[in-house]
Amino acid sequence: MHRSSSVDRVGVVVHPRREIDAALAAIRAWASTRGVRLGQVAIPGQGRRVAEPVDVASCDLVLALGGDGTALAALHAAAPASRPVLGVACGSIGVLTSLPASGLSAALEYLTAGNWTSRSLPALEIAAGSADPRFAINDFAAIRDGTGQVITAILVDDELYARTAGDGVVIATPLGSSAYTMAAGGPILAPGVQAIVVTPLADHGGVSPPLVTGPDSRLGLSVEPGYGGSRFEIDGQEVPLETMEVTVRLRQEYASLIALADQEPLLTGLRRRGLVVDSPRILARDARDQSEVPPG
After folding, report:
1. pLDDT in tens, 113-136
2. Nearest to 137, CA basis, from 157, 122, 151
3. pTM of the entire predicted model
4. Are 204 and 165 in contact (CB under 8 A)?
5. Which of 44, 89, 90, 191 is least surrounded by CB atoms within 10 angstroms?
6. 252: part of which helix (H) or strand (E)?
7. Pairing of the two strands 84-89 and 99-100
């Protein structure tokens, strides 16, 4: 993590449809008062325009206005230039957008004062054939694209782990372990853990539980599409790959996420959003104990 105190030019990445007017007004007022130049970082396929285009490399940092998907797009855009991203929730608060739009004005003053840190995020480096590698900040999935099953062979450092027949497999970073992987029954990696999570999806028989590998492991994935075909997804977006033989590694430092001093921890956010919930028996006991408290 590092700290910075100079903010002269800021790029924004915006959600294509979500209401962001209040957040933009706060940013423009702050920029006008502090002499900060604003521009919009272009995202492929995103036509909404709120500012003049700017090269992300000329920015000191990037503000992502929307949800976690917008933050992921901003992180990918900013990664080649090593620019940090602050995710602002314009709607529901997520893992990457833990700052609500209502708190943006105060957060911008923190940026001016240099009261922020930048946390490095790892990514999955996905190699297929002779094409340049692709990167996933959350996860990479090989899944069925219709009826029938997908057969996958999963290797760890050239050692066969399992051959599965089912809906496919999802491979996740530590950050991504709280997304698709968790929904599929895989483990959550706590902050500070550097590893890769491999989670087979809806296996039809056999035994292939979720697997956690070390940060230096090399994963091999071989995919045989079923009758309905298969597809690959990176961070939830379908991508074409030139072969069905894929190698996945963990790049330790890929993108940078801005953190403010009072932002909530990851596990606290999962509980607040109802993604991690206590046992019903515990909740029932708490409710009973509360009802038995005599009025004061």
Report:
1. 888 888 899 999 999 999 999 999
2. 122
3. 0.90
4. yes
5. 44
6. strand 245-259
7. parallel
Under DSSP, is residue 156 helix (H, G, I), strand (E, B) or coil? strand
Single-letter residue type at 38: L
With a CB cutoff of 8 Å and minimum separation 6, the contacts of 285 are none
Q: Can you tell me the distance from the alpha carbon of 143 to that of 150, in angstroms, rounded to the nearest whole number?
A: 7
Task: Please tell me the distance from the alpha carbon of residue 28 to that of residue 284, in angstroms, as a whole number.
Answer: 48
Structure tokens at 95: 């893992």
Cβ neighbours of residue 14 closer than 8 Å, sequence gap 6 or more: 20, 24, 40, 46, 48, 50, 64, 65, 66, 70
CA dist., res. 80 & res. 272, Å (int): 33
Query: What are phi and psi for residue 271, nearest 5 degrees?
Result: -70, -45
Name the burial class of residue 81, with classes exposed (0-12), middle (13-18) and buried (19+) by CB atoms within 10 angstroms of its CB: middle
Which residues are tagged catalytic? 68
Count of all residues that appear for the chain in the document: 296
* The token pair that represents 48 in the structure block: 């909404």
Q: Which helix (H) or strand (E) holds 134?
A: strand 134-136
Paired tokens of 222: 């071989």
Is residue 230 within 8 A of residue 239, CB to CB? The reply is no
Q: Are 226 and 144 in contact (CB under 8 A)?
A: yes
CB-count exposure of residue 46 (10 Å: 0-12, 13-18, 19+): middle
Q: Please name which of 121, 84, 72 lies closest in space to residue 253, comparing C-alpha atoms.
A: 121
CA distance 197 to 50: 38
- d(CA 78, CA 82) in angstroms, rounded, equals 6
